[in-house]
Amino acid sequence: xxxxxxxxxxxxxxxxxxxxxxxxxxxxxxxxxxxxxxxxxxxxxxxxxxxxxxxxxxxxxxxxxxxxxxxxxxxxxxxxxxxxxxxxxxxxxxxxxxxxxxxxxxxxxxxxxxxxxxxxxxxxxxxxxxxxxxxxxxxxxxxxxxxxxxxxxxxxxxxxxxxxxxxxxxxxx
Length: 173
Prior knowledge:
Elements: H1 2-18, H2 28-37, E1 41-47, H3 52-62, H4 65-74, E2 75-81, E3 88-90, E4 93-95, E5 97-98, E6 105-106, H5 107-112, E7 121-125, E8 131-136, H6 141-152, H7 161-167
Parallel strand pairs: 1-2
Antiparallel strand pairs: 1-7, 3-4, 5-6, 7-8
């Protein structure tokens, strides 16, 4: 009987660890197609394979359950490697990789980041794929939650950022 009780206690702690929400990532092409059928904003995580802060943001920010659930429900989250070599076709335009020195960059990353290639960067697009806001640099989970709620809830259309920060209380610890 003790063994069964211990097993239930162990499972009680282990199951929540395995049931954490994760972000369902799309390609940029998938997100553009999906938003035509079911309009949602698009959040693009622009990263590189060598970027240490990109990996930290994946581990600490995007893996946060509150953020992952909100992104999955309100956005089409996209992972986009700024140095990918594959062409991307969006809205009738083809974006290509550009070789430059020892590393190159993708034309789409360059456009999304307004020519300011820095990683990690997050770009928010509206339901019609128009730019809302690019955001450069690593952002911890709690401040990122405030940002995605400001944009995802359309507060950016009617409320000043400073005012929103004063009233919104993030559930992220």
